[in-house]
Specification:
The chain is mostly beta strands. Strand 31 and strand 32 (about 635-645) form a beta hairpin. It is globular. The protein is built from eight helices and 32 strands.
Length: about 650
């Protein structure tokens, strides 16, 4: 990572408040913002990052490396805490996201240092917000960059079915004789609970008195009184009828193959969306970072990439979206000779559907039982949890097999008295037997009175991957296994007939222009300077299995960075996080503790949360508990319990 110190413009930054007038059911409030500006007498375009995060601590390091960089290139770069988050006033209110966002855009466009042209960008939930704002087409909004938006983000004229965005490469499942099925592509139960625990802990954090003075406590108690646990995978509230402009702004939509929303990129660059106004990028990344910090890598010069996007649409707003020959979609092809691919159309014109028929005698798929065990703590043995699967291997031959898009699986199944759920996993198996998981998908087939065998076709999650010559393509089928998929209460055995069943891969013919659109090396502004003091205690293992004679084995995992982090302004943030998977029950627990401390003003607050997912005779139950303290005083304690369908 290169840290740039010299820019075309000198910059300054200030913290300020953005006033929002009362509208509808939303009361007037003040949003906390930080603005980095180039030192120039001329008004400049503004870039907005408006998100339900905390610019004072949780995103402070990330903000310091991005916003000053944009300001040094001649933009006013603005980071705003949403209503009820960070140091902004009010209580968290998802229904206020869009009207507040429109008000912030209008406020920015009216500032004397802004020339009235606004760009917006965001990561995760913030990306979902900017896409919804773009759909309203407010006049000043001239360009948008959305990274790893939640899967529920709307797609123009393309309603999504539950858990999956629709595109020509991801049609509704074709089912003979109108068999009722659903194809949920949800995060594993433990991953969803872990993200929900992080979200709950973040919602409970107070405003910082460094920015709000003595009003922090009253603001905090009001937030806690309105607190309701939320799922990060839940649908957004219905968008209100809000005034908009005309033509939606150009959108650069970005995700990673390891992020849950990458199918949304393919849906937006498909012909159903105006291709002249949309560009797509999918890399080998997870959903936690912008691509210049993208893990597991390679990272790219994402700031330079977005600067070109904003320059094109904010500095020359009448210019066409693309240059001649510019690809509609750039995506990472992993596996054999990994590289960046470029496509000028979606679906690509050079894809062929290659079928791999299944063979063998009929087999019974038995639903997993609650004792199904723990995920393997050994990353080198990813098939340890797949021993009950039924597998078919197909040789690749002497040439690589490059896949781009949605693999499809057609199964001849005979459900019995209830639903039969099948998990399909696509593996790359090397000659030495070492496997790499490529993608997966889930089919739920419902039985009907007197049901006989039926064929069901369902897509796996989209992917970009090249199988090397001499490797084997493996399709593994099994019923759901805990905790990677939550079994349904009525899951029943089903009979699979291999004859007539098949795997289909979207195989790509190698074009000659794949490497003609390279990315710059990652570059950012100088780091903020957050320090983490060393401790005498050894670091906790990221994953470990603990044997307990009373409760059975459990897997303990640390989901993200923990420890104490000291900010340059004196704030100390201490984070503890632990996820526990229990084989008996089964169950998952997520524990979070966050402490905020300013020793200079004797401010010391903490939030402890415990989220649990357990199973009883009738199904699954979630339980959330929150304890908030100011010093030793408990100021808030509440629990919630919900039965899952």
């Amino acid at each position: 990572m290169r840290h740039r110190r010299r820019f075309p413009y000198e910059t300054s930054h200030e913290d300020l408040w953005i006033p929002l007038a009362a509208s509808g059911t939303h009361e007037s409030t003040m949003l906390y913002a930080r603005v980095w500006r180039p030192l120039t007498p001329e008004p400049v375009p503004a870039l907005l990052e408006y998100a339900p995060d905390r610019l004072g601590d949780s995103t402070a390091a990330r903000d310091a490396q991005r916003h000053p960089w944009y300001a040094g290139q001649g933009y006013a770069s603005v980071r705003v805490d949403a209503r009820g988050h960070g140091s902004s006033q009010g209580v968290p209110d998802p229904s206020a996201a869009l009207p507040d966002g429109l008000a912030v855009i209008a406020w920015l466009a009216a500032q004397p240092w802004c020339n009235g042209r606004i760009g917006a960008f965001g990561l995760g939930a913030g990306a979902g917000w900017v896409l919804r704002l773009a759909a309203l087409a407010p006049g000043p909004l001239g360009a948008v960059v959305a990274v790893c938006a939640p899967q529920q983000a709307p797609v123009d004229a393309a309603p999504a079915r539950p858990g999956h965005a629709r595109s020509p490469m991801n049609p509704s499942p074709a089912v003979s004789e109108a068999v009722p099925i659903a194809v949920p592509v949800a995060a594993p139960a433990d991953v969803t609970l872990s993200r929900s625990a992080d979200l709950l802990a973040a919602l409970c954090l107070p405003p910082d008195p460094h920015h709000t003075d003595a009003s922090w406590r009253a603001l905090w108690l009001n937030r806690l009184d309105a607190l309701t646990p939320r799922s990060p995978d839940g649908p957004p509230p219905p968008d209100a009828q809000l005034p908009g402009g005309g033509r939606p702004p150009p959108v650069l939509v970005v995700s990673g193959w390891r992020a849950p929303g990458h199918d949304d990129v393919l849906a937006r660059v498909a012909p159903a969306a105006p291709p002249a106004r949309v560009r797509g990028l999918i890399g080998p990344w997870s959903a936690a970072h912008y691509p210049d910090h993208g893990l597991p890598g390679p990272a790219i010069g994402f700031l330079q990439e977005t600067l070109r996007w904003f320059d094109r649409h904010l500095r020359t707003p009448d210019a066409d979206v693309g240059t001649p020959g510019e690809p509609l979609l750039r995506c990472w092809i992993g596996g054999h000779r990994a590289h960046w691919a470029a496509e000028t159309h979606w679906p690509p014109v050079d894809l062929t559907r290659t079928a791999y028929p299944l063979h063998g005698l009929p087999v019974t798929l038995v639903p997993d039982v609650p004792r199904s065990g723990l995920p393997s703590p050994d990353a080198a043995d990813p098939l340890a949890d797949d021993t009950q699967a039924i597998c078919w291997d197909f040789p690749t031959g002497t040439e690589p097999v490059e896949v781009l898009g949605h693999p499809r699986v057609t199964l001849r199944l005979q459900p019995q008295t209830a639903s039969t759920r099948v998990v399909a996993r696509l593996w790359d198996v090397a000659p030495d037997g070492s496997p790499t998981l490529v993608t997966s998908g889930v089919l739920t087939l419902a039985a009907t009175p007197g049901s006989t065998e039926r064929a069901a076709t369902f897509p796996l999650d989209s992917t970009g991957y090249a199988f090397a010559p001499g490797h084997r393509i493996r399709l593994a089928l099994s019923c759901p296994y805990w905790p990677w998929h939550r079994p349904a209460p009525m899951d029943a055995p089903g009979t699979l007939h291999p004859e007539g069943s098949r795997l289909e891969l979207p195989v790509r013919v190698h074009p000659s222009d794949d490497e003609q659109w390279p990315f710059d090396a990652p570059e950012q502004a100088e780091p903020l300077g957050i320090s983490s003091p060393a401790t005498l205690d050894p670091p906790r293992p990221g994953r470990r299995t603990v044997q307990d004679e009373t409760t059975g084995p459990r897997l303990e995992a640390v989901p993200h960075s923990v420890g104490t982090f000291r900010h340059p302004d004196g704030l100390e943030v201490t984070v503890e996080a632990l996820d526990v998977h229990r084989a008996r029950g089964p169950g998952v627990d997520a524990h979070r503790t966050i402490r905020l401390n300013r020793p200079d003003v004797c401010w010391d607050v903490s939030v402890e949360t415990h989220s649990a997912l357990t199973r009883d005779e009738s199904g699954f139950v979630t339980r959330d508990e929150v304890v908030c303290r100011s010093g030793p005083e408990i100021v808030f304690h509440r629990t919630w319990q919900q039965k899952l369908p």
